[in-house]
């Protein structure tokens, strides 16, 4: 039997191809932060309602991914990193991705509204709209600050989780949003500094392409400096506490030192040590968000026994 090319029109997509449309790696971060937002909220949620809510948020995130892949299929074909995605590789038709994205969006938002409240459903609907329309259709191709403003889409899940439990928005959920929002740029730009991308070939104005690596290093430091007070401020709210604050101090000192190290470097130093510092800072950024949200969970668990908080 001969191999079947993915470009062959006779190729039939399988479940794995459709699942890839949903960007499962991105979905995992969404699910985790949304779950933390729900669990640290002051009002309890029935386990079944909680499960349905997180499922809706995950499906909504997947719908956003499918809509993004549908819209970005033209530039995905031009970049090595994305050329093997289901649509540019020919495994899934663009119309199928659009249909899946719209259907899952409607399902997730309506079910969340019925299961919980309209505030949570509105926030989920706005998140999908923001990522699929505001970021994908406009920001991504028009400004080097695309990842900054577009990062809001990935920052809404803990706010949605909080709204599921409380039916509203508060300073705690806003700061959880802000923590993820301010973390996204230095996390992404640290990666962009050592990964050779072909965004320029696709006409996507990423900061490293439009302003160069020195400007990107400055931006990493600036946004890390802005991130620190947000992270520490969250520790002073009703969901913070000494354990969270200790984690925040250590992680922010670690992250800030890395950002300063990046700022002091130049291209020659990066090439000499094969981007050792940039790779290290990116790895720290992966632990950073996870550590903060885990600390919030620990504080919430201890509060149940009268031990957490200030």
CATH class division of the largest domain: Mainly Alpha
What is the string of helix and strand elements?
HHHHHHHHHHHHHHHH
User: Tally of extended strands?
Assistant: 0
**Biggest sheet statistics:** none
Helix-strand makeup class: mainly alpha
Tell me the number of structural domains: 2
CATH-defined topology of the largest domain: Tetracycline Repressor, domain 2
List keywords for this structure.
mainly alpha; disordered N terminus; Tetracycline Repressor, domain 2; 310 residues
Description:
The protein has 310 residues and is an all-alpha fold. The chain folds into two domains: 11-168, UbiA prenyltransferase (Tetracycline Repressor, domain 2, Orthogonal Bundle); 170-310. The protein contains 16 helices and no strands. α9 packs antiparallel against α10 (171-194). The longest helix is centred in the C-terminal third of the chain and has 28 residues, at 276-303. The N and C termini lie far apart (68 Å). Mean pLDDT is 91; it is low at 1-9.
